[in-house]
Write a structure and sequence with these properties.
Blueprint: H1 2-23, E1 32-36, H2 40-46, H3 51-60, H4 62-71, E2 76-83, H5 91-111, E3 115-119, H6 127-139, E4 147-154, H7 156-174, H8 178-184, H9 187-191, E5 204-207, E6 226-229, H10 239-250
Parallel strand pairs: 1-2, 1-5, 2-4, 3-4, 5-6
Length: 258
């Protein structure tokens, strides 16, 4: 029965995807998409494998996602691969996960198709991991096209704290007093010190695995974002799921508070 259903899906889904693509309005596509790649461990448990197998399956789904984004005209993608909270996982699991992340980022870099930009508190990561993320950024610095923010050791509260710290250090270097800074401080001053400075805020944030919360992802930048929550675990996230997210986004009327 399962084989029969899979055969039907292989026939029907390509036609369904083509219909979705035809109906997507080109002028209502997101320019920046944030993705919370959630559910690798639960997927692994469901198929009777260990967590590392789930993380590797999730890593294998990253390049296809970036290709789908390119097809849709997306200009910036932010991938949340590891949160600051994830750093508290058991040491053996964390080491294995970091190796998988390093390999996944190296694979993206060697393709030389996307400009990689590590975002997160790299000082919290093992030195080798931080170095490899920076190397991937250096290797792809001049690659045109899609910008891929690789969020590793990322937490939204930590990002805001780091931005404020950077802002204070900058003004201290200029000799600005705290009182003078308080008089001129505006939201844009903090935005200029975020990990994603110079980039547009995400138009669409996708979270897989059925969870419906931000969990600290792009807290500052997502103030005006649209959200799409998908039931599929990340390793099972398909092109049709991505197209459905784009369709949902295109059907919403963004008021930006007006």
């Amino acid at each position: 029965m399962a084989d029969w259903k899979d055969a039907v899906r292989r026939v029907l889904y390509p036609a369904y995807e083509r219909r979705l693509v035809r109906r997507l309005p080109a002028d209502r596509m997101p320019k920046h998409v944030g993705v919370m790649l959630d559910g690798n461990r639960r997927w692994a448990k469901a198929v009777g494998r260990d967590a590392a197998h789930g993380h590797r399956a999730g890593a294998a789904n990253i390049s296809p996602l970036l290709e789908w984004c390119e097809e849709a005209g997306v200009e910036v993608v932010t991938l949340w691969l590891l949160s600051t909270d994830n750093l508290n996982r058991p040491a053996d699991e964390l080491r294995a996960l970091l190796v998988i992340i390093e390999e996944a980022v190296a694979d993206l870099a060697v393709q030389h198709r996307w400009r990689l930009n590590p975002v997160g508190a790299l000082d919290l990561l093992p030195a080798d991991t931080a170095r490899r993320l920076k190397e991937a950024a250096d290797e792809t610095r001049d690659v045109p096209g899609l910008i891929v923010n690789v969020a590793v050791g990322y937490g939204g509260r930590r990002e805001i704290a780091d931005a404020v710290r950077s802002l204070l250090q900058e003004h201290a270097g200029r000799g600005t007093s705290i009182e003078e800074l308080a008089e001129i401080l505006d939201v844009e001053h903090i935005a200029e010190h975020l990990y994603t400075k110079g980039q547009p805020d995400p138009d669409l944030v996708i979270r897989t695995s059925g969870e419906q919360r931000l969990g600290g992802f792009l807290l500052w930048q997502s103030a005006q974002s649209e959200f799409y929550f998908c039931e599929a675990y990340w390793p099972d996230f398909r092109r049709v799921d991505f197209l459905r997210a784009l369709r949902a986004y295109s059907e919403r009327h963004r008021r930006f508070g007006s």
